[in-house]
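Minutes, project check-in

Agenda point 3 was the complex the collaborators sent over. CS summarized: two entities, 223 residues total, and the question is how they sit relative to each other. Sequences were read into the notes so everyone works from the same version.
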Amino acid sequence: AQRVTQPEKLLSVFKGAPVELKCNYSYSGSPELFWYVQYSRQRLQLLLRHISRESIKGFTADLNKGETSFHLKKPFAQEEDSAMYYCALGGMGYSTLTFGKGTMLLVSP
Amino acid sequence: DSGVTQTPKHLITATGQRVTLRCSPRSGDLSVYWYQQSLDQGLQFLIQYYNGEERAKGNILERFSAQQFPDLHSELNLSSLELGDSALYFCASSVSQGGTGELFFGEGSRLTVL
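CS then shared the predicted structure for the full assembly.
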């Protein structure tokens, strides 16, 4: 069964500090990993996906199949990054995405 | 707005009652997904429909049911409501029916059971 683990419920950092939101998964087959973000009073939206290998709003995430991880990183956090972040897992043969429980990121000035 | 729309935005009801949540997917999207978001469990997948047919079931209680109509809108029916059913219910849509594409979410329906 596919499973996504986000070990931190809350991550609090100061503006300008590096950020790493952890995500580990269990999956049989070829996984596809996503990060979704939910800003205050906004709908959940896709931030980035591993197959795109792109940086969005300064965030990057590398799929590490050996460690079954897909951690989200940003070198310098901004206050506007404060949001709820969900790691999601999908792939061929699966009907939908499985989400982790989410990590709330709070960036203080 | 051609995005995913959900109604009602807020709903307050009593235990034992029945409610219906409605979702209209993005134009052109054939798949509709229902998720339940609670503080304890995060985002839990309930059920998926593709072009009118049920495709996948997640942690959906027997008291809950859903359907997708020919115009592709979907309804989630919650009956014999309990206090623990209080949550935010999200609908999402996608072009594909698999777990490889981007999901587009609605703003959610917040259900409070008193």
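Noted in discussion: The longest strand of chain A covers residues 83-91.
Follow-up: revisit at the next meeting once the mutant set is ready.
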